[in-house]
Amino acid sequence: MKITKVKLYAYDVHKMKEFYCNHLGFALITNTDHFVDIAVGESIITFEKIPSYVKKQYHFALNIPCNLFQPGKIWVKDRAELLFSEGQDEVYYDRLKAHSCYFYDPEGNIIELISRQEVNQKQDANSFSPEHVLNIGEMNLTSDAIDSVANSLKEYGITPMNNNEIRSDALTFMGNYEDGANLLLGPSERIWYFSDKKAIVSPIKIEINKNLQLCMTENGDFTISQL
C-alpha cells in the first residue's frame, strides 16, 4: 500500500501554500484560489478551501531516508517549532523501528517526519532538503464508527499491521509494515502524540496506489471507490 494523494481542507489556502511551498520548500503543482496541489516526494497533498464553520484536524507523517533523521530534524528546527513530549523533541517507536519528530502547520495540523530504519531507503547525503522526502508515510483517519470503517478497509485488502486487533479506544495502524505506509484509524477525542489537540472527525479524501479512493465526510460518512 502506498498513499499516493490526500485531499485535506483548509480555511486559508494561500497561507498553506506560503508555508509548505515558500517556507518549507515543497514544489507547487497547481495553484488556484480554491485549492493547491503540492508535491511531497512521490505523493501529492491537496489543500482545498472549506468554510470556517467546518471543524477539521489532520495528522500526517512524511517518510524520510533512514539515515537522515537528525539532519531532517535540524531542517525542521530552522523553519518551525518542534513539538515536545515529556521534555523530548523526538521519539523512537520500537514497533515501527522509526525515529520521529513533530511540528504544526499554520492551521494546527500535526506534521511528522518519520525515519523508518528497516523500510525507508538510505540516501547519500549529509544534509536534508525537501527533495529527500520520500512520500506520505502516515495519514490519520478519524472515525466514531471504527469497526465499520475497518471492515470496509479489509474488504479492499487494507488490514491491521502485524495482524493486530482493531482498537476502538486507540490508534490502529492499517497497512503492511514493509510498505512503509499506514492509515491511522482511531476515534475522535483522543489526544495526538506530541500535542494537546484532540482528534476530530474531518472531511478527507485519501488516494491509495492511484486506484483506490477513501472518502470521509465532515459528518463521518465513509466510502471507498475504485478510480
Number of contiguous helices: 3
Mean model confidence by pLDDT: 97
How would you describe the shape? globular
- Biggest β-sheet, characterized? 7 strands, mixed
Order of helices and strands: EHEEEEHEEEEHEEEEE
Summarize the amount of helix as a percent range.
Answer: 10-25%
**Which regions are unreliable across 5 or more consecutive residues at pLDDT < 50?**
none
Distance between the termini: 15 Å
Cα Rg: 16 Å
Q: Beta fraction of the residues?
A: 25-35%
Structural class: mainly beta
Please state how the strands of the largest beta sheet are arranged side by side: 2-3-4-1-12-13-14
Compute the number of strand runs: 14
What is the secondary structure topology, with strand pairs?
Layout: E1 3-10, H1 13-23, E2 27-31, E3 35-40, E4 43-49, E5 59-63, H2 69-77, E6 91-93, E7 98-104, E8 110-116, E9 135-142, H3 146-155, E10 172-174, E11 182-186, E12 204-208, E13 212-216, E14 222-226
Parallel strand pairs: 1-4, 5-8, 9-11
Antiparallel strand pairs: 1-12, 2-3, 3-4, 5-9, 6-7, 7-8, 10-11, 12-13, 13-14
